[in-house]
């Protein structure tokens, strides 16, 4: 009997891991929000700036062009989770009202950072070349993601890569020629600006930052981008 009970517990733990693992093993790119039955697509120039990450330490991040949301969650049975805390930085300089309004839909309508719309359920649809993640809140609103970047025109947005990430002492930016970076600003997860580079650098020194998660806001003549930085 004891062996049987241990086996059941073991199998249940494997089932729970199987549910959560695909959620945590990818960066998810937002395809659309579905609120009150209406589809809302991300602003085209920022199509791949809206991502979701779910970490092994039960933290989550909804990265957005303007107001990234971060917090903590607890996994429940049947592929559900509750958001225990959610917050966002109070900074949105230089972006259009369209982008601000879209971010506010995530903050107010979908997540509801004041009183999260718990529980959130999630499900996967496996396509030949990618996975679709659908996260549904208690109101029936949905955020639909893919585990790969969405196709956009090269004219819509300059491609930016930040490396190495995680970073120990510094990072570099790989960006299309002619994008003309003007400022690079780094924010903590609670929205406090912790570093500000007013000119482009060959290497951005972040050795003074404590280990953790930060948001890097890149602005230039032809590029505006928010990226997540892991400092170790």
UniProtKB/TrEMBL annotation:
Q: Where does the signal peptide begin and end?
A: 1-18
What keywords is this UniProt entry annotated with?
Signal
Q: Where is the Secretion system C-terminal sorting domain?
A: 162-222
Where does this protein have coiled-coil stretches?
A: none
Which InterPro entries does its entry note?
Secre_tail
Tell me the Pfam families matching this sequence: Por_Secre_tail (PF18962)
Q: What is this protein called?
A: T9SS type A sorting domain-containing protein
């Amino acid at each position: 009997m004891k062996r049987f009970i241990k086996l059941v517990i073991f199998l249940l733990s494997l089932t729970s891991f199987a549910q959560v693992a695909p959620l945590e093993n990818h960066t998810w790119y937002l395809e659309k929000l579905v609120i009150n039955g209406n589809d809302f697509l991300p602003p085209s120039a920022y199509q791949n700036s809206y991502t979701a990450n779910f970490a092994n330490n039960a933290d989550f991040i909804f990265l957005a062009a303007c107001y990234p949301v971060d917090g903590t969650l607890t996994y429940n049975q049947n592929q559900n989770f509750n958001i225990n805390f959610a917050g966002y930085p109070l900074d949105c300089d230089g972006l259009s009202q369209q982008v601000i309004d879209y971010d506010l839909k995530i903050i107010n309508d979908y997540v509801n950072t004041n009183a999260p719309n718990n529980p959130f359920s999630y499900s996967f649809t496996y396509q030949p070349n990618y996975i679709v993640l659908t996260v549904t809140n208690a109101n029936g609103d949905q955020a639909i993601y893919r585990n790969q970047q969405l196709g956009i025109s090269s004219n819509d947005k300059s491609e930016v890569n930040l490396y190495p990430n995680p970073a120990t002492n510094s990072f570099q930016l790989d960006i299309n020629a002619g994008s003309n970076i003007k400022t690079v600003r780094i924010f903590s997860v609670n929205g406090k600006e912790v570093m500000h580079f007013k000119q482009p650098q060959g290497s951005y020194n972040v050795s003074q930052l404590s280990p953790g998660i930060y948001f890097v806001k890149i602005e230039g003549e032809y590029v505006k981008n928010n990226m997540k930085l892991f400092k170790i």
